[in-house]
Predict the structure.
Amino acid sequence: MKINLKIWRQPNSESPGTLVKYSVPNAHPDMSFIELLDVLNEQLIKNNQEPVAFDSDCGEGICGSCGLMINGVAHGEQKQTAVCQLHLRTFQDGDTITVEPWRAKAFPIVKDLVVDRSAFDRIVATGGFISVNTGAAPDANSLPVVKENSDRAFDYAACIGCGACVAACPNASASLFTAAKISHLALLPQGNPERKQRVLNMTAQMKTEGFGDCSNHGECEAVCPKGISLDAIASMRREYLKAVFS
């Protein structure tokens, strides 16, 4: 199958970028989208052209590095699917696909499709951890946790930090990402010691990094490859109010 591409090319964060047209005539329906970019880069290198820069990926939808805007949708239109697991069989022969990086002030473009998402790391560093020594796995498993809480914590822990929520949000909010980290630990007994300070520190850092605020558009939930619910944001807000007023 033949796939036409319009890819954002930008040499660095200071230089202006533009969409450049390419064509891959030897694409295969079973290729992932990342494999398509690999084939394109092989073509470009053979023609002594600069290959397209994009983040490497795990190919299993668990690292989040592959985040791209595909036809204006974070990770593409297939629900709960990261770009590395988006296959060309979801497109038609001869389709033209527009590929862009995440667009957010807090995610500055490094080159082409690569953005700097270290803002997420700094948010996690302020409180997305526990200091309690839980011992070996059998000791941790002996702690009683309500099943509803453990199930919800597991769902929130599935966040891979890809940044799709930020890219899709009209406010470029990191609320879903931050809320998933806060809510995950708030539901477990190991997370209780830092519970109040965690939500205060992480939400403050989120603001410092330049992310916008949540206005409940729901775009983040719609594009999240792990299907994390807006309920996480509601949970984060409850945690914040408890920390401030208790």
